[in-house]
Design goal:
The chain has 167 residues and is mainly α. The chain has a single domain, classed as Orthogonal Bundle (Cytochrome Bc1 Complex, Chain D, domain 2), CATH 1.10.760. The chain has seven helices and four strands, in the order ββααααααββα. The protein has a two-stranded antiparallel sheet. The chain has a two-stranded antiparallel sheet with strand order 3-4. Strand 3 and strand 4 form a beta hairpin. The termini are far apart.
Amino acid sequence: MFVDSGNVLSQSQPQSRPQSRLPRLSILVAALLIAIAPACSENKPDDSQSKTTAVSATVTEKTKNPFSDSTDAVAAGKLLYAVNCASCHGDDGKGDGDFAASLPAKPSNLTGADVASDPDGEIFLVIKNGKMKDGKMTMAAARGLTDDQIWQIVSYVRTLAGNKKGD
């Protein structure tokens, strides 16, 4: 028998102990990661049927961004980038996001000359379809975004690369 604060407990009764906050914190962190991970995941649910416009069927690498001169598109693209891209590419687009070190391939530096010289349509298609290198997926396709939203991200990426036109 044990004595606890004046109460008598038998050996079969568990002693009451203060609950550790570590398990709760671990669960909260895991839930947060589960909520954030789809932004870089190729396993996101595909609800593109209701969100995709007919433009995607005709986009080629040379397609010009229909929102290239829109400051509203840049602002919307910045928000979409923060949610869908920054965790891997970084807030400033340099490929140094929070998850970058854990990825098998370093994310592209979106501020570099190679991205600045890429046509709008090529950037759109990489975001929409993902990117493969040496037979390996280096960037998952962005699922759940409309074509307009992808073009808005392209508009914002142009500001990172210092080339808003993509000409």
